[in-house]
Specification:
By secondary structure, the protein is of the alpha/beta class. α1 runs parallel beside α2. The strands form two sheets. It has an eight-stranded parallel beta barrel, surrounded by six helices. A two-stranded antiparallel ribbon has the order 3-4. β3 and β4 form a beta hairpin.
C-alpha cells in the first residue's frame, strides 16, 4: 500500500508524558492508524541532549498502541542558519536520535529560511550550505533507520513582515532542492494547506506545484486554508479563523483547497503517512469527519496508484 496510515499530530504535551499517553489512547480509540509526535514539549531533549528518563517514558507510552509513528522536529531548526550552524546541526542530529529511540520512523523538518536580501544576493550559496548540512543529518538518519520528510512551509508572520523567506513556500522549488540533494533518506512532506497559502502569496498554480513535488512525497500534512495571508491584525486565532486568514489548520471544506482535484491526480511514495493538523477548536466538532475525509483521500490515492501499477505490469508482461 502506498499510504499506510492516517492520524493526527499530538501537539505540545507541556512536559507531561501522561498527557501524551491520553492523546495516543484517544487516537487509537477513534480509529486513527498513525500519530505524529511533537518533539518539543516532551522534555526528552534539553540542550540538544537526550534525557534518558523522559525518552524511556515517551517510548513506553507510544508502545501501548499499534500506531504508525512519525515525529515533528522543532520548527526553529533551520539548516540555512549560518550564524548558528553548529547549534542547528546538533538540534537536527539529536532529533534523529530521539526519533530512533522512541520508534518514530519519519522526522518532519522545515527547510531553510533566510532574509529576502540574502536570498536575492546569495541564493546558490545558501542552497548549497543547506544541502551540505542536510546531507550530514540524512546520513545519520539513514544509519538509524529513519527518514526525513522536508516540509513546504507557510507564509508565517516573519515572512509576511518581510523578515525572512524560503524557497519551500513553493513545492516545485522544494522538489528542485531535493533533486539536487538526491539522498535516499530524504523525502518531501507535502503540507496541503501550506501549498495553498504559498500559491496565493506567490501566484503559482497550487495543484501543479504539488504534482511537481509528487515524485518525492513520502509524508502528507492534511488541513485546509483559504490561502489568504494574515495581513490583518487579529488578537487571537479565533479572529483569524473568522476572517479566514493565515495558517488556519482547518478541516476540509472550511478553506479553499480543492481536495478533490488533488486527490484525483496526486501520486506519492510507498510508506507515506497522512497526518491531520487541525486546531483544537475544530477538533471539538470536526475531528471524526476530518479523519474520515483524510482516510477517503488516502483510499482514493491508493486505489488509483494500484490501478496504474497493475496497468504498467500488464503492459510489461504483454
Amino acid at each position: 500500500m502506498t499510504i499506510i496510515a492516517t492520524g493526527f499530530n499530538t501537539g505540545d504535551a507541556a512536559g507531561s508524558v501522561a498527557t501524551l499517553a491520553t492523546k495516543l489512547a484517544h487516537l487509537a480509540e477513534i480509529g486513527a492508524t498513525g500519530a505524529e509526535i511533537t518533539a518539543t514539549g516532551l522534555d526528552a531533549v534539553v540542550a540538544c541532549r537526550l534525557i534518558p528518563s523522559q525518552v524511556a517514558a515517551v517510548r513506553a507510552a507510544m508502545a501501548l498502541h499499534d500506531l504508525a509513528y512519525s515525529m515533528h522536529a522543532p520548527i526553529a531548526i533551520n539548516l540555512m542558519d549560518e550564524a548558528h550552524r553548529d547549534l542547528q546541526r546538533r538540534a537536527a542530529l539529536v532529533s534523529m536520535e530521539l526519533a530512533a529511540e522512541i520508534g518514530a520512523r519519519v522526522v518532519v523538518l522545515h527547510p531553510g529560511r533566510c532574509t529576502p536580501l540574502d536570498w536575492v544576493n546569495r541564493r546558490a550559496e545558501l542552497l548549497a550550505f543547506e544541502r551540505e548540512l542536510l546531507a550530514e543529518v540524512a546520513d545519520r538518519a539513514q544509519a538509524l533507520g529513519v527518514r526525513i520528510a522536508y516540509e513546504n512551509i507557510s507564509p508565517n508572520a516573519r515572512v509576511i513582515d518581510g523578515l525572512e523567506t524560503s524557497y519551500s513556500l513553493d513545492p516545485a522549488q522544494l522538489a528542485e532542492q531535493l533533486e539536487a540533494l538526491n539522498h535516499p533518506a530524504v523525502v518531501a512532506c507535502l503540507d496541503i494547506s501550506h501549498a495553498q497559502q504559498g500559491a496565493t502569496l506567490w501566484g503559482f498554480d497550487m495543484i501543479a506545484a504539488c504534482l511537481r513535488l509528487a515524485p518525492h512525497i513520502g509524508h502528507i500534512h492534511y488541513s485546509d486554508s483559504t490561502g489568504w495571508p494574515a495581513t490583518i491584525a487579529s488578537r487571537h486565532m479565533g479572529e483569524a479563523h473568522f476572517f479566514g486568514l493565515g495558517d488556519m489548520h482547518a478541516p476540509p471544506g472550511f478553506g479553499l483547497v480543492d481536495f478533490a482535484a488533488l486527490e484525483a491526480q496526486l501520486t506519492v511514495l510507498p510508506d507515506t503517512r497522512i497526518v491531520i493538523e487541525i486546531k483544537s477548536n475544530f477538533k471539538v466538532h470536526s475531528e471524526a469527519s476530518t479523519l474520515a475525509a483524510a482516510q477517503g483521500f488516502a483510499a482514493a490515492v491508493n486505489a488509483r496508484q494500484m490501478k496504474a501499477n497493475a496497468t504498467i505490469k500488464t503492459g510489461a508482461s504483454a
